[in-house]
Every structure is written in structure tokens, then in C-alpha cells.
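[agent] plan:
  1. take the single chain provided in the ticket
  2. run structure prediction with default settings
  3. attach C-alpha cells to the ticket
  4. add a short note for the reviewer (M.T.)
[agent] executing step 1
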Amino acid sequence: MAIVINLDVIMAKRKIRSKDLANELGITEANLSILKTGKAKAIRFSTLESLCEILECQPGDILEYRNK
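[agent] step 2 finished; step 3 output follows
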């Protein structure tokens, strides 16, 4: 099982840069990069909610389950 993070895809569709998104979220670009690359072990619901609000999307647009 694998949870895939599609944050980079959504960001590209919304034409938002990492620097701008990180500033709006109130996190560092390094932490945003960890999320984008799927290296994060967890994500806070408050962060996910903020991402969805800023990117105008649903959690399922960002997170995807793929059966290996």
C-alpha cells in the first residue's frame, strides 16, 4: 500500500510557486518540499485544510491511495 502526494500536480494546475504556498501556509519551503516529495510521515489536518483552502481543492486531490 502507498499513499501518493499529488501536491506538485495541484500546484502546477493552480500556477502557485512553492515559496508563495509555503508563505501562505506559514511553513518553511523545506517542510513544503518534504510534503511534495512524499517523504513526510504525517500531515496535520489543519495543514491539509489550509492546503485545500489555498489551492481550492479537496483532500482527495492531494492524497491518493495506490495499491502496489
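[agent] step 4 note for reviewer: The longest strand covers residues 2-5.
[agent] ticket updated
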